[in-house]
């Protein structure tokens, strides 16, 4: 089985780009370098979309790229965080 760095299919590439966009927007929002009028849940949708595209690439297109781990892990982190916030609000 051969592993590559970047996915070859469109769903895998979308997943990687969405996760990079999610990380960049959250970093800009947290550092207050730019005052973005985007709410955090709207930015989190990018991570969940990256998770969906990443899972589609892995299971349907048999994607075995190393960079597909990033959107899946980031998306699972956002889903776990959202679930915990809904279960145990503070």
UniProtKB/TrEMBL annotation:
The keyword Transmembrane appears for this protein: yes
Membrane-spanning residues: 15-34, 40-59, 66-84
Keywords of this entry: Membrane, Transmembrane, Transmembrane helix
Protein name: Uncharacterized protein
Source organism per UniProt: Acidaminobacter hydrogenoformans DSM 2784
């Amino acid at each position: 089985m051969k592993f590559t760095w970047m996915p070859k299919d469109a769903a895998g590439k979308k997943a990687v780009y969405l996760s990079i966009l999610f990380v960049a927007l959250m970093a800009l929002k947290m550092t207050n370098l730019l005052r973005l009028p985007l709410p955090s849940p709207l930015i989190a949708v990018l991570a969940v979309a990256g998770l969906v595209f990443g899972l589609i690439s892995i299971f349907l297109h048999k994607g075995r790229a190393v960079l597909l781990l990033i959107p899946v892990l980031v998306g699972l982190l956002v889903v776990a965080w959202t679930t915990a916030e809904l279960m145990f609000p503070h």
